[in-house]
Amino acid sequence: MSDNVKEISREKSAALYAKAQTFFPGGVNSPVRAFKSVYGTPLFIKKGDGAYLWDADDNQFIDFCGSWGPLILGHNHPAVREKVMEVMQNGMSFGAPTALENELAELILGNNPFIEKIRFTSSGTEAVMSAIRLARGYTKRDKILKFEGCYHGHTDSLLVKAGSGLVTFGETSSAGVPKSFADETIVIALNDKEALAQAFEDFKDQIATVIIEPVPANNGLLLQHKEFLQYLREICTANGTLLIFDEVISGFRVSFTGAAGLYQIQPDIITYGKIIGGGLPVGAYGASAQIMSNVSPEGPVYQAGTLSGNPVAMAAGIAQISELLKPGFYEDLSAKTEAFVNDITTFVNERNYPVNLTRIGSIFWFAFDTKETIRKAEDIDPQSMSKFKQMHFELLNRGVYFGPSGYEVGFVSAAHTTDLLNQAKQAIFDSLEVIFG
Ligand SMILES: *Cc1c(COP(=O)(O)O)cnc(C)c1O
């Protein structure tokens, strides 16, 4: 750290964290929040507004975490806040249908040619779990195939990583997942057509579904070639296997219609989460009317939820999705992010720093110790994360908040003005100079 930059105070956060550790395992309610991969005590946040966050010690940050993706309009957007407050006047949950569910569904289905019917859940994990069950029920097959480096929430059968060998059964990546579950999950590398073809040969007529993040953004930003995704579409069709695009992070982010729209590829089932709830807990899965007719009570695939379609959460979704439908929304957001990322790329290239940035729409990622575009998980060097760790520390001290792990992507929101992005850029330049200069 250079002489004129002071380390931020974490006194109040540290006290809150100490107390939290008496309540929660690791002091948190979701693991990455514990700052295990970066320096210092986790910051306890007390307020967010626009592109800014404030922590318990009153440090102010330009935020690029955006609650891990949902806040595409920034924090505390007036349209979302006002709609939620209006709806809350009438009570918070009824366990009965409301017009708000129709309203959100109409906004989505009326502007998305890739799905005809939708079902709301309360999280991305739940949406994915339900989509997998639907695919299995529909195909009457048990096996599923996933890709190493794609995250699909914490459903048992998806907490599975690649074993050794080219085409393998997965190994559980969490204690508590029965081996017999992992045995139903095949795990292969991204961006590898041969491995995919081999898996379909080895498990002929057994694979119910292939699930992929079409824009893998939970383990770095591992952009796939459109051609690979097209091949995946074709091989699934040829084998009677349903293709699930897990668009919990890319949906409403890389375009209104997500990666399906961006790449113009029709999956069989799409899952959503994050942005769809405007910052409240909402997930969803959608498909053709024919596939969705298999879901209970119309069909035999059971799925339910006490708070599914909750009116307050629907209200937040309606307000946020309505903003996204305004003309030029994605073009503006993308252009701002592109300029921001290009300037940083120019900076690191001129100085020959071993940093490579990738971007799609308003998502970006810093890879260290490489100049290559990384497309599969195994090509990320774990050692390179020490550089991210340093950058994270330097950035916090300069008023910029990134998610506390080098495997996480950054998000630009509509609230990030060009002016704020220029400020953040300068902080990034100064931090990189401390690390590499
Ligand atoms: C965040 C995420 C999930 C899990 O969603 P939760 O709401 O955290 O349960 C699943 N899939 C993808 C692609 C995600 O980014």
TrEMBL record:
Q: Which SUPFAM superfamilies match?
A: PLP-dependent transferases
Gene3D superfamilies in the record, alphabetically? Aspartate Aminotransferase, domain 1, Type I PLP-dependent aspartate aminotransferase-like (Major domain)
Q: Which reaction does it catalyse?
A: (S)-4-amino-5-oxopentanoate = 5-aminolevulinate
One GO BP annotation of this record: protoporphyrinogen IX biosynthetic process
EC nos: 5.4.3.8
Show the GO cellular component annotation of the record.
cytoplasm
List the subcellular locations.
Cytoplasm
Q: Which UniProt keywords apply?
A: Cytoplasm, Isomerase, Porphyrin biosynthesis, Pyridoxal phosphate
Residues bearing the modification N6-(pyridoxal phosphate)lysine: K274
User: What are the protein's GO molecular function terms?
Assistant: glutamate-1-semialdehyde 2,1-aminomutase activity; pyridoxal phosphate binding; transaminase activity
> One Pfam family of this protein, by short name?
Aminotran_3
Q: Which cofactor does it need?
A: pyridoxal 5'-phosphate
Q: Which InterPro entries match?
A: 4pyrrol_synth_GluAld_NH2Trfase, Aminotrans_3, Aminotrans_3_PPA_site, PyrdxlP-dep_Trfase, PyrdxlP-dep_Trfase_major, PyrdxlP-dep_Trfase_small
Q: Does the record's keyword annotation contain Glycoprotein?
A: no
This protein's pathway reads: Porphyrin-containing compound metabolism; protoporphyrin-IX biosynthesis; 5-aminolevulinate from L-glutamyl-tRNA(Glu): step 2/2
Q: Which NCBIfam families match?
A: hemL, PRK00062.1
By its UniProt entry, which HAMAP family does this protein fall under? HemL_aminotrans_3
Q: Which family does it belong to?
A: Belongs to the class-III pyridoxal-phosphate-dependent aminotransferase family. HemL subfamily.
Please give the subunit comment from the record: Homodimer.
The protein's name is Glutamate-1-semialdehyde 2,1-aminomutase
Organism, scientific name: Mucilaginibacter aquatilis
Query: What is this organism's lineage?
Result: Bacteria, Pseudomonadati, Bacteroidota, Sphingobacteriia, Sphingobacteriales
